[in-house]
Structures are given as C-alpha cells and as structure tokens.
Amino acid sequence: MTAEWNKVFFCISTYMRGDFECSEIFKFGYVSRHPNDLQQYWEYVRSYMEDGPEAHYKAIKACLPIAERHETWKEGFDNLPCNWFTTPFYFFISFARVYAMRTSKIPRWPEWVEQSC
To answer: Three-class SS of residue 115?
Structure first.
C-alpha cells in the first residue's frame, strides 16, 4: 500500500469501532499500556517521515542486525521485559522465541518498494 503523507489520517486508539469508515487501514505494530509511550512512538514516526531518516539513525540506541540473519538467543532475551521476578519465566519463554525466529523467514521488502526507496 502506498499513500501520500499529507493525505493520510492517523489516530491512536485502544480499539476501532465498527462505525469508522475507511478505505484502507494500516496498523503500526506497537502496544503499550501508557498513552505517553504511544505518543512518543508516533512522534518518532511523524518526524521520521517529515524530516527524513538521517536525524533518527544516530538516535536509535539499539538496532538488531537482522537484515541478513536471525537474531541470536542473547539478542532476543535482552529484548524481553525481564525483572528479578519475571526472569525465570522469560528464560524459558526465550527458547520458544528462538524456535519462532529460526522457523520464520527473514523479511524482505518487495522489489517495487526497494526501487522506490
């Protein structure tokens, strides 16, 4: 799907009601219990689209090198929301994550997207 940035409508919502009319919907894959997190995420997307990627490339503190390979067990474990209480649970969950990563394809943009970029 392609769209002109100035003609797109965006909203942050906890749910979509049935009376909302729209010809196409694209959901950003971000979930948070804190509305401020969603607003910060949206601000990142908005400024990326309006100012370009150069200003944001250096601001990202961690970017997984998964363009050519699957993440390692440690990279996946480090991204789980662990604390002293949940670490044992997430340790076991991390092996399911490794299985999911190893059995999934590395995502590739379609050729038409690569060419337009």
So the answer is: helix
